[in-house]
């Protein structure tokens, strides 16, 4: 995929969340360029959402650390709390690639559900951290074209792990799944069959 070093973790996190790994790979590519130590402080977010929230302000981390996005998926601390990070965990724990990708995939799955599966709407939600109607113009104007390009590259790499051939004895197209394609399809089949051993 796009962010080579993180392929296995991206696949695992995406499978656990029940989403297409190419979407998560594209998010990582545009949010952090694959840098697990990437940060972005959001002062407007701090003023609008963190400081007025007494529960967040009661945490020992400080408003600035809470209003910073961290790691591969550029996960905001309040968003991480929303998808399962314990409030006793410091924001800097989001630098851990496996944890960050797992939480990013969960939040992306939530955005996809809220967007009825519309990937671009889900990406706008993910990037803005807000209801779609309140997503800033930047999300639609600059962010989505970058996402589309990254997603096309990621899908191309996922599709390249599928090898198609037509056996002459049967004359029917058959697809052999390898690598990413196999991992993704096994995850989908496990969800369909109700195997929830890894919630």
UniProtKB/TrEMBL annotation:
Residues 9-130 form the Transglycosylase SLT domain. It holds the Pfam family SLT. Keywords: Membrane, Transmembrane, Transmembrane helix. CDD domains: LT-like. The chain crosses the membrane at residues 170-189. This is Putative transglycosylase. It comes from viral metagenome.
């Amino acid at each position: 995929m796009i962010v080579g070093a993180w392929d296995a973790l991206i696949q695992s996190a995406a499978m656990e969340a029940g989403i297409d790994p190419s979407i998560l790979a594209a998010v990582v590519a545009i949010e952090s360029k694959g840098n697990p130590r990437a940060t972005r402080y959001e002062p407007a977010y701090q003023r609008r959402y963190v400081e007025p929230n007494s529960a967040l302000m009661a945490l020992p981390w400080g408003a600035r650390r809470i209003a910073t996005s961290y790691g591969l998926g550029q996960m905001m601390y309040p968003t991480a709390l929303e998808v399962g990070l314990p409030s006793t965990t410091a924001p800097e724990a989001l630098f851990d690639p496996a944890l960050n990708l797992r939480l990013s995939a969960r939040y992306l799955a939530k955005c996809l559900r809220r967007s009825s599966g519309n990937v671009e709407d889900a990406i706008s939600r993910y990037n803005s951290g807000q209801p779609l109607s309140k997503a800033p113009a930047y999300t639609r104007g600059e962010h989505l074209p970058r996402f589309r390009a990254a997603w096309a590259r990621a899908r191309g790499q996922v599709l390249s792990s599928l090898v198609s051939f037509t056996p002459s004895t049967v004359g029917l197209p058959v697809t052999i799944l390898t690598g990413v394609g196999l991992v993704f399809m096994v995850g989908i089949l496990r969800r369909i069959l109700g195997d929830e051993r890894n919630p």
